[in-house]
Amino acid sequence: MASANFISIIQHQPALATTYEGDDPELLERLAPLVDMIEISPDAIAGSDGKRARLRPEVMDEYASVSSQLRFVAHGVGLSIGSFDQWSESYLCLLDELFARFDLAWHSEHLAYTEVAGENVGTMLALPRTQEALDLVCERVRRIQERYGVPFLLEHVIQLLPDAPGDFTPAGFLNAVTSNTGCGLILDIYNLECDAHNQGLDISGFLEELDLSSVREMHVAGGVKQNGFQLDIHSRESSNSTLKLAREVAARAPGLRAVTYEFLKEAIPSLGRDAICAELVRVRKAMQQ
Amino acid sequence: MTQLELQQRGLLDLIKGRGTPPTEPYLVSVAGSKGLGMIREIAVWWRAFQIEAQCYFTSRLLKSYGRFDSLITSYFKGNATSPFVEELSRGFLLWLQAEEDSLIRSVTQFEYAFLEVRGNSDVVFEVLWDRNPDEVFQALEGRRELPTRDGKYAYRMRIGRNLPGMFVCTRGPERLQHGQEEYRPTLAQEQKRNEKSAGSARNEGDVVRASQSKRHVSG
Prior knowledge:
The complex is a heterodimer of chains A (289) and B (219).
Chain A: H1 3-10, E1 15-19, H2 25-31, E2 37-40, E3 46-48, E4 53-55, H3 57-65, E5 71-75, H4 89-101, E6 104-110, E7 112-116, E8 119-126, H5 131-148, E9 152-155, H6 170-181, E10 184-188, H7 189-199, H8 203-209, E11 215-220, E12 222-226, E13 229-236, H9 240-252, E14 258-261, H10 268-271, H11 273-288
Parallel strand pairs in A: 1-2, 1-14, 2-5, 5-6, 6-9, 9-10, 10-11, 11-14
Antiparallel strand pairs in A: 3-4, 7-8, 12-13
Chain B: H1 3-16, H2 25-31, H3 34-54, H4 56-64, H5 68-78, H6 85-95, H7 102-118, E1 124-129, H8 133-141, E2 155-159, E3 167-171, E4 188-190, H9 195-202, E5 206-207, H10 211-217
Antiparallel strand pairs in B: 1-2, 1-4, 2-3, 3-5
């Protein structure tokens, strides 16, 4: 059971992590020997007591059942760190609950917003790369860092809308956030490929400009094309190009601690548990080459 | 208003398809973009996926009417939706109470009540049906033709955490006469009743089987 963890440690390889959102104990049992860490998304495991969102206790118990074998990280969707007015207190309450129950190696959120004036947008939207947005995000990152006292990472999101006028390049904006706050980055390799497809992002130029020493975690995933867009709907295995790029970046990112294969809970029936497990073996092997 | 606020409020309005057409250059470019359509599609798709997972019978009923997608879209556009699936589902089910169709109201009240009970609510909910609910559940489960209104009986279902099996359904004593004013089920919230009163309710009429429904609503 501990062999995967042990190999990562002695070879100084990044840990392997994956998503688990509860309600599938058979899957969790199969995932546990294959990975070193589990990514917990508080939003995805939230129920409600009729008054406010709360973490579902039965899912928390599932995590507890593997807590002696695996480490946990939290990866949020709904903090809405970039909202002009306020972030989501509901999300922070969920995160408080999670921190109260488990030791988290770090936690992370998307560099985006999901709410505007308290109203949910329906998806995650990228921030304009302006000084105003930068100042707002940095101030909130500092508050988050003080509140939880463990490393906090931000992940760039894909851009489907036209690029807004801004003061920074995509990499320059991330560099400014990390250098101003000391927070780490999640580099989502598949998101880069989406942006290259949808927006013409020059991945090589982006990576050349990005301060890769701030990358603590990488995400890999596979998605779908629809209406000409490459979407970050994590419903497939990673493509060979994604893993190849992940390997190249890993070699240049000395602070990298984990590589996470992400898949949606909703995709499990079509993807299949066997394919998920095989994918984890494949990702680990790819990262060890 | 800061530039960030202006932009975020403008994008929200564009995604929700409301407000006046923008004049600010960036928002104008978004309004004419393919990406906006994709964002709208994704936003509705997510809501649909979450509601379908949480509200099994309601989703199947609305699909059988060919109204699922349009109602999800209308709900998203016209309401501030919760990012959390259970709260989203509650909001959607309550919103559907304004529907004219009595079966939509009964099914949504039933699923709403179960969400509340699963959330440890002590309330005992009452849902009235104009046809046998078990036949409704079986039809939805098997994607078969829905039963028509029962011209002789009304069905009274009570749902509560402390009821045996979490809910009890009785047939009668109400009778719907042809031409009689149709009753409109309401989401009546009763105070908590003890199991004794629940037991007595079982004797008021024939207990309707509801085995099919438990599998999908009690989690």
